[in-house]
Design brief:
There is one protein chain. This protein is mostly helical. It has one domain. Helix content is 71%, strand content 0%. The longest helix is centred in the first third of the chain and has 31 residues. The radius of gyration is 20 Å and the shape is elongated. It starts with 19 loop residues before the first helix and ends with a helix.
């Protein structure tokens, strides 16, 4: 096999052989899908326990999980472009906004679950 010339490399080439950016993107996708499943389970279980008001936190959780999925894809594309544009430099990558959003969603759903359990006990 012959090596591609430096000027003819495809735009979708990988940054490193370990595919760290791709693995991170898949990890965020799994996290977002897990949050979707948790929100859908909340929609299925909580109304029987506390009534129709349970659809509010479940809907908010589902909407935020979809935002996490979208933000993860945007983050991957932005980071991949930055890595490919940097020639030997260390580019500035995405910050911790997606991590903070994910923590808020998970903690919010956990708080709702705790409230439901307290209501159920008392």
């Amino acid at each position: 096999m012959s090596e591609p010339q430096s000027g003819s490399a495809p735009a979708s080439r990988i940054f490193d052989e370990g595919r760290q950016a791709e693995r991170t993107a898949l990890s965020w996708r799994r996290a977002g899908l897990s949050m979707c499943v948790g929100a859908l389970a909340t929609m299925r279980i909580f109304p029987a326990v506390i009534g129709p008001i349970a659809f509010v936190p479940a809907g908010v959780g589902l909407a935020l999980a979809l935002v996490v999925l979208f933000a993860a894809q945007v983050r991957y594309r932005r980071d991949h472009a930055a890595l490919m544009a940097a020639s030997g430099e260390h580019p500035a990558l995405s910050g911790g906004g997606l991590v903070a959003l994910t923590a808020v969603v998970v903690l919010g759903l956990a708080l709702c679950a705790a409230v439901v359990m307290l209501i159920r006990v008392f």
